[in-house]
Amino acid sequence: xxxxxxxxxxxxxxxxxxxxxxxxxxxxxxxxxxxxxxxxxxxxxxxxxxxxxxxxxxxxxxxxxxxxxxxxxxxxxxxxxxxxxxxxxxxxxxxxxxxxxxxxxxxxxxxxxxxxxxxxxxxxxxxxxxxxxxxxxxxxxxxxxxxxxxxxxxxxxxxxxxxxxxxxxxxxxxxxxxxxxxxxxxxxxxxxxxxxxxxx
Length: 200
Hints:
This protein has helices at about 50-65, 75-80, 85-95, 130-150, 160-165, 170-180, and strands spanning about 10-20, 25-35, 65-75, 105-110, 120-125. The radius of gyration is 17 Å and the shape is globular. By secondary structure, the protein is an alpha/beta fold. It has a domain at about 10-145: Nucleotidyltransferase, domain 5. It has a five-stranded mixed beta sheet with strand order 3-2-1-4-5.
């Protein structure tokens, strides 16, 4: 069972990103502030959920959240500042858009660039430990998946409707056959086996 919050005194937002290990498209991030008494039996790390479950949860999260926001950093920005900084920037942009200003932020992962003067806590595998991070994980994942599905119509050869830009064998082969699209990240090596470890 996930925990409702990391600390109980301050308004807390959970943050997570999606698309960090992709070859193409933006990285998305979400920030979510949930009610103190929020609980949900199904909500968990988005990677542990089916697409149908994520879509159902997204509706419930958006209805229940005190505030939520989703933001992105595109492939060109990723190439300019690198994917780690782009992930932080996407989270900052999501936090900027919250209608309720958080006083404390919890982030999935082990690194984060401080946001304004707000204290934060990094939580390794936090999307499987805290509701707000799990909720952010679901929002970031579903919004990004929809974005990549829309791009699929423009470049069907890369099979983005299925792989969402991640480095599957079919995606890598398509890049070798057709070259890169305008949405590919030029600083990512298509044949780099290390990319598979970032499939988050």
